[in-house]
Specification:
heterotrimer; A mainly alpha (about 325); B mainly alpha (about 400); C alpha+beta (about 170); A: about 325 residues; mainly alpha; 2 domains; two-stranded antiparallel ribbon; 6 strands; about 5% strand; C: alpha+beta; 3 helices; elongated
Chain lengths: ~325, ~400, ~170
């Protein structure tokens, strides 16, 4: 008995050592990020709240002093505005400026379809909304793509809604009136689908794919999708990937930190920060899980039963073995 | 014409015995197939492997019902049809994926048990050789199966491994294209590896398993002390009811009862992995569809190929290939490199014991280095040293076993 | 005594394993079931306005041919007829109830004739006695929605036919 345990300990030790080296350790080494001096950068998510600290740190690493100053000023203003008391009624009037484009018509403007804002107050973070209205390119941390950030497809908002109080009002309006209960699917449609198709849910950049009785209609729709994809590709540089399997293709930590700040994980990416709140992210994640890992629930339900079965099996087998080996020594 | 009892009831013991010698079979394969008593749980690894192979076959059958070997359909047939639509499709896939990875852990344990206890010589050479045949066949099976989901790792593993056949400076690209049936891994490549995975290699494996069991019957399994046992005499003692005095037990049911207990413990671990920790066996990168225009940031084989992959990596193209080729076949020759007549556990064989543990540690270091990024200079040096050490292990074994003293057996 | 104990333990383990085996068989059975996408595709909509009197219209439902025949006023009526907008239609699964071949419609004799084994069905899908087909052509589950027929859904008219034993 003692000898068996000793042998088992040796086998377990070497198995776990190998496992540790090829899994946690190797993956840590492979995916670690270092700055110019070789210091390891730890990328954390901040619970989907946005105060610009990642952006300022990035600017500092780039060594561009003007950029650092711009970022610091920008996010300082955002925090200032967030402290203002917003008026919902005035905000509704200001929102008319937004509704001109965000009219739910799914029009492509400047490269992407204008997102629907029906649940904007629910799925996006307050600070992010403020930042977005102040300067969309800065808020989404893609300002490096523009010489002048007002060239962003939504850049002109800087001139139409420029007063700090106005920004506070319109954000207060959205947080109150555009904040109904949201389903995972709606969250995905409002936050992601304009760039990312989801073929396991029959979704393209144009949203749900209808069923067609005639091949001709199906092909006509496909052409519309291709045209939309071309516009998105022209705007983004690459066609953003289909997200059907992304929930299994990337780790939970990667997805979380990447969505919170794409530049942190993939410096230079054209993916903008979309500013999801914790709730918004949870909803999107739930939808991606439905698409890419639909067996999760069944797996978690069945697991304890199967393992319980083999525990009892092993106990019975042990008793049988004991009765067999009882008089052997 | 042999004698048949006309009054024997169909399918009765007598009826069957006259037709397929059932009593002889039972005696030879079960009740009088003597196994030494002095064994530990490592002796159950063979049956654990057989059970795992069974799980792989069963889960594979159900996956085969819905898998589509076509570069346009393969990825979605696995990740959508099987995972989302087929009832319990996800269960078969997870069993298959985890089984394919964990079977190598058990193979390695089984193999190094054999090396530690010296169970590959003095009459047991064929057991070792057929076992190595199985190792090669399982490796081919694992590689061909890895192609099938047609994700990024499938494609790029297919690309890199088939390129090995260009033979370095021989530049035999014609051979590479012949293997692929295309300039790059494409449809023809996928369908032929599908055939290999579900038909040809499984047939070879089944044949080799039968041979492996066959080669075991006459020499019998070894025991913890490497003691030479007179199985006929010990068997007679058992049959006379002297269970305590006999050094042996029958395969069935006494040995089997222990095997099944060990299997139970193993299945708890196995299904824990299937339900809660499958990621280690199903690499996230392979959930990105194959893209011939984009190599993933890090590519690496599954963990069980890492040590031999690392022997390829630190050297230049030609030397690397030769070193890799030597590593692939090195273990096959073990019974002939080991010149010592001793069949005994390593801890009784002096220098051999040191050799054994150095080998284990070297393989683990190679395995780790095979996955770590080669760009780090420290990892590169460690990789080079451990690869050279591995290549030296053969000649070292040859020398130390020549000088190994004959052990006096006290049994 | 000792042997008894061994046998008992072996038997318990065997029975417990068999119970687990039954569970595994259930999972295997589920794997053989038609996929949800196949079941969802089990609905098709047929526009009856396309049918012309005494001309056989063939549509597809669950991979099977569906016969739609608009009856002329002279044709014999039957309880199996589907009445939509005052018009009578014969609708059935176009597979012979003998062994599943597709019968052909003969305009002149107004019968369905199966070439495989010579079965004959009349204009309402009733088999001719003495020939191989044992029962009338089957009526697929249907639901009337305006002038269209949704196949695969069970509407009140279909359920009535079922209760009356007009189809299986």
């Amino acid at each position: 008995m003692y000898r068996e345990l000793k042998v088992l300990a040796v086998v377990v030790f070497f198995s776990l050592l190998t496992y540790y080296l090829v899994e946690p350790y190797a993956h840590h080494e492979m995916h670690k990020k270092v700055d110019a001096n070789g210091t390891e950068l730890v990328i954390e998510s901040h619970g989907f709240t946005y105060d610009g600290r990642d952006d300022i740190a990035e600017a500092k690493r780039s060594g561009n002093e003007t950029l650092v100053a711009t970022k610091i000023d920008f996010w300082k203003d955002v925090v200032e505005i967030s402290k203002l008391e917003g008026d919902v009624t005035t905000g509704e009037a200001v929102f008319a400026n937004c509704a001109g484009c965000h009219n739910g018509m799914s029009m492509n403007m400047g490269g992407v379809i204008v997102p629907n804002l029906d649940h904007a107050g629910r799925i996006y973070d307050k600070n992010y909304l403020i930042a977005l209205i102040k300067d969309p390119a800065m808020a989404s941390n893609v300002d490096h793509k523009y010489a002048d950030t007002s060239m962003h497809p939504m850049g002109s908002i800087k001139f139409t809604v420029s007063d700090n109080q106005q920004i506070a009002d319109v954000v207060a309006y959205m947080l109150e009136k555009k904040a109904e209960e949201v389903t995972p699917k709606e969250a995905y449609e409002e936050a992601c689908v304009r760039c990312h198709a989801l073929r396991y849910k029959k979704m393209t950049q144009l949203g749900d794919t209808p069923t067609f009785k005639h091949k001709k209609d199906a092909l006509a729709h496909e052409i519309k999708v291709i045209e939309e994809q071309e516009k998105v590709q022209a705007y983004m540089g690459n066609l953003p990937p289909d997200l059907s399997m992304i929930i299994r293709a990337r780790s939970a930590h990667f997805l979380e930190t990447f969505v919170a700040n794409p530049q942190g994980q993939l410096p230079g990416t054209s993916m903008p920060r979309v500013g999801l709140s914790q709730e918004g992210y949870d909803k999107v994640k739930a939808y991606l899980t439905e698409a890419g890992d639909p067996s999760k629930k069944a797996r978690e339900e069945l697991g304890p039963w199967v393992i319980g079965f083999f525990i009892i099996f092993t106990i019975l087998a042990y008793l049988w073995k004991k009765s067999m080996w009882r008089d052997l020594h | 014409m042999a004698h048949f009892d006309k009054n024997a009831k169909p399918f009765s013991n007598k009826w069957l015995d006259e037709r397929i010698a059932i009593n002889t079979l039972k005696r030879v394969l079960n009740t009088e197939y003597w196994i030494p008593k002095d064994i530990n749980f490592l002796w159950a690894m063979g049956m654990v492997l057989a059970a795992t192979f069974g799980l792989l076959v069963i889960s594979g059958i159900f996956l085969l019902m819905y898998y589509k070997p076509d570069t346009n359909l393969a990825f979605d047939s696995v990740n959508y049809t099987i995972m989302a639509e087929v009832g319990y499709g996800w269960l078969w896939r997870h069993i298959h994926g985890v089984g394919a990875s964990i079977v190598f852990l058990i193979i390695y344990i089984h193999m190094f048990t054999g090396i530690y206890y010296g169970s590959y010589k003095q009459g047991r050479e064929l057991i070792w050789l057929s076992g190595m045949g199985l190792f090669v066949a399982f490796s081919a099976e694992a590689f061909s199966g890895y192609m099938l989901p047609w994700g990024q790792m499938s494609y790029w593993a297919g690309m890199v491994i088939t390129n090995l056949f260009s033979g370095g400076s021989l530049e035999a690209y014609g051979l590479v294209e012949w293997i692929r049936g295309d300039y790059v891994p494409g449809d023809a490549f996928l369908t032929r590896f599908f055939m290999l995975h579900v038909l040809l290699i499984p047939l070879v494996i089944i044949g080799l398993i039968v041979l492996h069991f066959g080669t075991l019957r006459l020499p019998h399994v070894n025991n913890q002390e490497g003691a030479e046992i007179d199985f006929v005499e010990a068997g007679e003692l058992w049959k006379a009811g002297k269970r305590k005095e006999s050094k042996v037990i029958p395969f069935s049911p006494v040995f089997l009862s222990k095997d099944i207990f060990v299997m139970g413990v193993y299945f708890i671990l196995f299904f824990y992995l299937v339900f809660y920790h499958f990621d280690f066996a199903m690499d996230p990168v392979n959930f990105d569809p194959a893209d011939g225009l984009k190599t993933p940031a890090h590519i690496y084989p599954e963990w069980y190929f890492l040590w031999s992959y690392e022997i390829l990596r630190p050297f230049g193209k030609d030397v690397g290939l030769i070193a890799f080729a030597i590593a692939q076949v090195a273990f096959v020759f073990l019974p002939f490199i080991d010149r010592s007549p001793n069949v005994a556990p390593a801890h009784k064989r002096g220098l051999f014991q040191i050799w054994f543990w150095v080998l284990i540690i070297d393989l683990i270091v190679l395995t780790a280095m095979g996955k770590l990024p080669p760009t780090d200079p420290v990892f590169a040096i460690v990789g080079l040293i451990s690869a050279c050490l591995f290549l030296a292990m053969g000649p070292i074994l040859f020398i130390i076993t020549i000088f190994e003293k004959k052990l006096e057996k006290g049994e | 005594m000792e042997k008894k104990r061994r046998d008992f333990m072996g038997l318990s383990l065997g029975l417990f394993t068999a119970a687990g085996g039954v569970g595994a068989l259930y999972a295997m059975k589920r794997t053989w079931d038609p996929l949800p996408s196949v079941q969802a595709a089990g609905f098709s909509t047929i526009d009856l306005a396309l049918a012309k009197p005494n001309e056989l219209l063939v549509e597809k439902w669950r991979g099977k041919p569906i016969f739609i025949l608009k009856k002329t006023p002279e044709m014999e009526t039957h309880k199996r007829d589907i009445i939509v907008g005052g018009e009578r239609y014969h609708v059935s699964i176009g597979l012979c109830t003998h062994l599943g071949c597709i019968p052909a419609y003969k305009k002149d004799t107004k019968t369905f004739f199966c070439a495989c084994h010579g079965g004959v069905f009349d204009i309402s899908g009733i088999q001719t006695p003495g020939l191989p087909p044992p029962s009338p052509l089957e009526i697929p589950p249907f639901k009337i929605e305006g002038t269209t027929l949704v196949l695969g859904e069970e509407g009140p008219e279909y359920l009535q036919m079922k209760t009356d034993g007009l189809t299986v």
